Amino acid sequence: xxxxxxxxxxxxxxxxxxxxxxxxxxxxxxxxxxxxxxxxxxxxxxxxxxxxxxxxxxxxxxxxxxxxxxxxxxxxxxxxxxxxxxxxxxxxxxxxxxxxxxxxxxxxxxxxxxxxxxxxxx
Length: 122
Description:
Largest sheet: 7 strands, mixed
Order of helices and strands: HHEEHEEEEE
Low-confidence stretches: none
Shape: globular
Mean pLDDT: 94
CATH class: Alpha Beta
């Protein structure tokens, strides 16, 4: 049995889905009404805008997959976790901080790529 919130399981399924109908179904299970998504390359609000971001991403990396790289750390209405994106031979690590509402629907997804900067880089 998974201890991951269902909205996160559905969110990962959307990233790994290949057809638009499946992507939107998984996002409908994960997202609230106006979920905000931000990463270093894209921003979207709501299912349709985020699905368009996934479509654009998928067109440039059709075989890419995302997988869990950690457990989920949660408090209040926040979840954080690490993930790994595999694009051919390239592996991109990252992590997300996700805010959920009282119904455990995603309100905001803040996504970061790569490891945290070294302290010496400051």
